[in-house]
Design a protein that fits this description.
This protein is an alpha+beta fold and 395 residues long. It is 28% helix and 24% strand. The chain contains nine helices and 20 strands. Strand 11 and strand 12 form a beta hairpin. The protein is globular and about 65 Å long.
């Protein structure tokens, strides 16, 4: 899929730390759209081995803030053509996305989100319980009697895609345009001179460069320490699990903030399920029995007929959370150092638009207009982009 390079060059125009979806997408668009091909993508592990390979692949744009809606809507638009761009089947499948409401206050929030979405041309609508039942006949609207479903926000463009294919598609596309991808290459330091990036120290030697992009998700605080920057990012484990393959029965994506559960069914018949963040800060990807038990119980609240279905495996990723549940993107106080972080539980769906906007920012030295609401200095200015109402459940 891409070339393996035995040696690093002495210098590159751009060094990208992190060979996940975001880092590879930025490299791809740098080469394709901006003609910057002397780029190295470094990863201490392997391509797509971080959160890109550990997420639950949901794609949507039904956010709450104007900044979030416009940003993710552009990402959904870019998703439509990715398979053709890559000449690779990404298993992109439009399913429709239901965010269930179990209380009157939750229904008010769904109406609010629907109106914001419509204002920016995004197809979302608040629907009643009967609409939910028609779309998902097998759902128990009473949810075991303790959390009855009153309605939902229905987002027709909601979709899923194959995460590994996305990473490999961007990686192959970048490689074909001259970008070098170096796996098993850990960054151990970033050299800064007179407030400007001068190069990157790695386990395979020093690389000279004037531009560095940090796209390492839960490892962001460690990289920022190397350049003397701090952010309010905190890292929590986010777990998920998948069932054995069963006959196709669930077409839409179903999310419940009250039950802390979300689920979709893959083309192979597996149920991909997740919940909210683990409630403690921990830099570890270990799994827990408590998660599997609680998530299974909530799944059975909605779909009691699944009681005999087996869980095949579970896993965890590191979610880099911000106080306002929006990312941190763009230029930083260190000249030549750029950041793409704070993605928490919603980074996969933003992969294409992150690549487009960060490649523009790297090429021009100026933030792309779509990321102006996500800059690092918003916390110092107390101008937060409050996205918690649309991103509080991990999906």
């Amino acid at each position: 899929m891409f070339t393996r390079h035995d040696t690093l060059k002495p210098g590159y125009d751009v060094v990208i730390i992190g060979a996940g979806g975001h880092g590879l997408a930025a490299a791809y668009y740098l080469a394709r759209d901006h003609g910057i091909q002397n780029v190295a993508v470094l990863d201490k592990g392997y391509l797509g081995g971080g959160n890109t390979g550990r997420n639950t692949t949901i794609i949507r744009s039904n956010y709450l803030t104007p900044e979030g809606v416009k940003f993710y809507d552009e990402s959904v638009r870019l998703w439509q053509d990715l398979a053709e761009d890559f000449d690779l089947n990404l298993f992109y499948s439009t399913r429709g996305h239901f965010t269930l409401a179990h209380t009157d206050s939750a229904m008010r929030t769904m109406r609010w989100r629907a109106e914001v979405n419509k204002h920016f041309g995004v197809r979302s609508e608040a629907v009643d319980a009967a609409f939910v039942k028609r779309a998902i006949p097998s759902i128990d609207l009473s949810c075991g009697g303790h959390a009855p479903i009153l309605g939902a926000l229905f987002h027709a463009p909601g979709a899923i895609a194959r995460h590994d294919a996305v990473a490999w598609g961007y990686g192959r596309g970048a490689d074909r345009r001259g970008v070098e991808i170096h796996q098993q290459t850990e960054v151990t330091g970033i050299r800064v001179q007179a407030g400007r990036v001068a190069g990157v120290e790695t386990t395979r030697g020093f690389i000279g460069t004037s531009r560095v992009l940090c796209a390492v998700a839960g490892f962001t605080p460690r990289i920022l320490d190397m350049v003397g920057l701090s952010t309010p990012i905190y890292v929590h484990p986010l777990q998920a699990m998948v069932s054995e393959p069963i006959k196709a029965w669930l077409d839409p994506i179903v999310v419940s903030g009250s039950l802390h559960v979300y689920v979709s069914q893959t083309a192979r018949g597996e149920l991909v399920m997740g919940a909210s963040l683990d409630p403690y800060e921990l830099h570890s990807t270990r799994s827990t029995l408590d998660f599997a038990e609680n998530l299974s119980a909530h799944m059975l609240d909605m779909f009691p007929f699944l009681c005999e279905v087996k869980v095949n495996r579970q896993w965890a990723g590191l979610a880099d959370m911000t106080p306002d549940f929006a990312p941190i993107m763009g230029v930083t106080p260190v000249d030549g150092f750029y950041i793409d972080a704070g993605w928490g539980t919603w980074g996969f769906k933003a992969t294409p638009v992150c690549g487009k906007t960060m490649s523009h920012t790297l090429a021009t030295g100026r933030n792309h207009e779509l990321i102006e609401g996500f800059t690092i200095d918003r916390f110092a200015r107390y101008q937060l982009t409050g996205e918690k109402g649309a991103a509080s459940v991990g999906h």
